[in-house]
Amino acid sequence: KAIRRQRQMCIETALNTSARLLWNELSDKDFLIEDAAEILMEHYSVSEETAKKDATVWVDALKKCGIISAD
Question: What pTM value is reported for the model?
Answer without folding.
Answer: 0.77
